[in-house]
Amino acid sequence: MVLTLLGAGLIGAVIGLIVLRGGFYNIAATAQHYPLIYTVFEEGLQYSVQNHARDIQVPAGLGAPEQVRRGAAVYGANCIQCHGGPGVAPLQQGMSMQPVPGPLVDADLNWETRELYWITRNGIKMSGMPAWEYHLSDNDIWAVVAFVSAMPNMTTEDFRRMTAPGDAPAIATQGDQP
Amino acid sequence: MSAARITALTALTMLLAACGPTRPAPGIQGDPERGKIALTQYACHSCHTVPSIAGSKVYVGRPLGDMAERRYIAGKVPNTQDNLVRWIMDPQAIDPDNAMPNMGVSERDAIDISAYLLSQ
Predict the structure, then answer these.
(1) What is the interface pTM, i.e. ipTM, of the complex?
(2) What is the pLDDT of residues A43-81, one digit of tens each?
(3) Domain-located, residue B1
(4) Which regions of chain B are under pLDDT 50?
(5) Least CB-CB distance to A103: which of B40, B47, B104?
(6) Average pLDDT across chain A, whole number
(7) Which of A93, A100, A156, A89 is nearest to B101 (CA)?
(8) How confident is the model at residue A15 (pLDDT cuts 50, 70, 90)?
(9) Of B45, B60, B102, the CB nearest to A105
């Protein structure tokens, strides 16, 4: 029995090594994942974020108009390139990434507010989502979370106007380090 | 009919049969298989669920599973392939306030993408 299991394990390892070293798996970003693999990765992501974000406290009063305006400027400077927004396309670099960065207007359907903060601050390994902890102040991370949370109620015109470069506090994103 | 023509016709028939579900629906222009890849390179599947494309459940754009049956595009224009190509290339030309961005899709890619969507 033990020998059979060991033998099966060995055969599996050899097959795995052949597939790995043979380079048969297509790593091209034009080749989509198999649906099952995509689903397993996505569920793992969901549970991991839920677990790691569980102790985060959302600041009281999140979503005040001034904070949302600040978040819009941060979004326009750092997020829109890959995620786009209502009526606004991402850059080509964002639209042809795999996994695709995806819209954020429906982010509140998938994530709690504290989880959006965690993802923005820590990034997501192997997905292209960078960690912003060392590049944005904590206030700006919360501001962009507040802005994303407000996106479902915006028209395309609201979104374009708020994220346009030059709108009020847009310039400060690089200067206001943690 | 010469033997060569019969051989050629047989080969053509076998080739078409081998194409199976990947060939375009009758009357549809373009290459659906190429369109299936092209649509992922313009992030269509980031907002729409698309048949046979792995992706998240998204509720931003409408699901694209029944485009061949759909009568209208965005409730504005009849769902012909020409109109679908126009829509994919420049949604705001048909519906100025629409939230679907102009993704800069080339005409060739839009034709192939529409061929894939209309062949499902």
Answers:
(1) 0.85
(2) 999 999 999 999 999 999 999 999 999 999 999 999 999
(3) no
(4) 1, 13-21
(5) B47
(6) 92
(7) A89
(8) very high
(9) B60
Expressed as residue numbers, the domain containing B66 is: 25-118
Tell me if B12 sits within 8 A of B91, measured CB to CB: no
As a whole number of Å, the CA-based R_g of chain A is 21
Query: Domain boundaries in chain A?
Result: 30-173
Measure the CA–CA gap between A106 and A149, rounded to whole angstroms.
9
CB contact under 8 A, B43 and A33: no
Distance CA B56, CA A76 (A): 24
CATH of the domain at B104: 2.60.40.420
- CB-nearest partner of B53 from A32, A84, A95: A32
Question: Which CATH superfamily hosts domain A30-173?
Answer: Cytochrome c-like domain (1.10.760.10)
Please tell me which residue, A171 or A21, carries the higher pLDDT value.
Answer: A21
Residue A175 has a pLDDT of: 44
pLDDT reported for residue B6: 56
On whether the CB atoms of residues A106 and B59 are closer than 8 A, the answer is yes
- In this prediction, residue A177 has a pLDDT band, given cuts at 50, 70 and 90, of very low
B112 contacts B32 by C-beta, under 8 angstroms: yes
In a domain, B11, yes or no: no
B54 contacts on A by Cβ (under 8 Å): 32-35, 37-39
Residue of B nearest to A154 (CA): B99
Distance CA A123, CA B107 (A): 36
CB contact under 8 A, A87 and B104: no
C-alpha dihedral sign at B29, B33, B37, B39: positive
What is the count of structural domains for chain B? Answer: 1
Note whether residue B16 is domain-resident: no
